[in-house]
Amino acid sequence: MTQEIPRDDLPGQGLDPEKMPGHWLLAQMGKRVLRPGGLELTQRMLADLKIQADDAVVEFAPGLGVTARFALERQPASYIGIERDEVAAEQVRRYLSGSNRQCLVGVAEETGLPDRSATVVYGEAMLTMQAPDKKVKIVREAARLLKPGGRYGIHELCLQPDDLPDSKKEAISRALSETIRIGARPLTVSEWQALLEAEGFTMASQVTASMHLLEPKRLIQDEGFGGFLRFVWNVVQNPVARRRILGMRAIFRSHAESLSAVTMVGVRRGAVDAEHPQNPR
Ligand SMILES: C[S@@+](CC[C@H](N)C(=O)[O-])C[C@H]1O[C@@H](n2cnc3c(N)ncnc32)[C@H](O)[C@@H]1O
Question: Which residue among 103, 126, 141, 145 has the greatest number of ligand 1 atoms within 8 angstroms of its CB, and so is best to mutate?
Fold first, then answer.
């Protein structure tokens, strides 16, 4: 399912491979699926979001547009991606045609979109990398955009069990941040849940999966066999990328007991428009 994209057209081009964020390094090497639970958890999230023809969809941080394509297959009434990286936004736009499909360069915490203008909002692998106050702002923005009854899906890294000691949480965050060269602050499942509930969501579903982003079986599932071979070939050819990516995998493996992926969908609380119950106010 993955496609060859010239390296010059990918985010991270021109950055020092030693220092660039891990997700862009993986993208430069040919990886397209950049979320911790892979396509399997993405499909679970999409099934629980139940996107239909009358939905107004907003995606936070679409990255290279992999999930945007699945969402668009469901023919929603509209789709707006909000992506911070201009080069990534350009990649997403390649999949968009028609007047009600756009990808804007912007930040999820302040989209500039109108209140209650969406019925579905989702974002993958983008909250974990935010500081605590930014996480709250982004979830609050999803709540502001959604009509009551609207659905919000997330797909992120999580820590387990729920009572993991703070010292262990901090050690894992530090190790992850050092290896992926971007702040990574995963929460436990109950902390993610509490974050959504505090901002006006009622939990509808939640699924976890192993954090196997860089394990061969998951790589083949996510990228296809050709994409897997291309990725491995690119990594083997590039000593800096090889060292960094093996380093990332070593950290994921050494914390495998405490590190997982989670997707959850929350429903926006609030009064439903009696005239249009399927499209609440
Ligand atoms: C790990 S990648 C995940 C991309 C995509 N969601 C996926 O799962 O494949 C993180 C993405 O979040 C974007 N991003 C990070 N913070 C953001 C923010 N505050 N607003 C919008 N996009 C953001 C990055 O530019 C990048 O595309």
Answer: 126
Phi, psi of 235 (to 5 degrees): -70, -40
pLDDT in tens, 245-254: 999 999 999 9
Q: Is the dihedral of CA 39, 223, 4, 236 positive or negative?
A: positive
Task: Give residue-wise pLDDT tens across range 89-121.
Answer: 999 999 998 889 999 999 999 999 999 999 999
CA-closest candidate to residue 38, choices 265, 266, 246, 261: 261
In whole angstroms, give the CA distance from residue 194 to residue 237.
44
Residues whose CB falls within 8 Å of the CB of residue 222, separated by 6 or more in sequence, listed in order: 31, 32, 33, 38, 39
Nearest atom in ligand 1 to the alpha carbon of residue 61 is 22
Residue at 157: amino acid letter: L
- Report the alpha-carbon distance of residue 34 to residue 281 in Å, rounded: 34
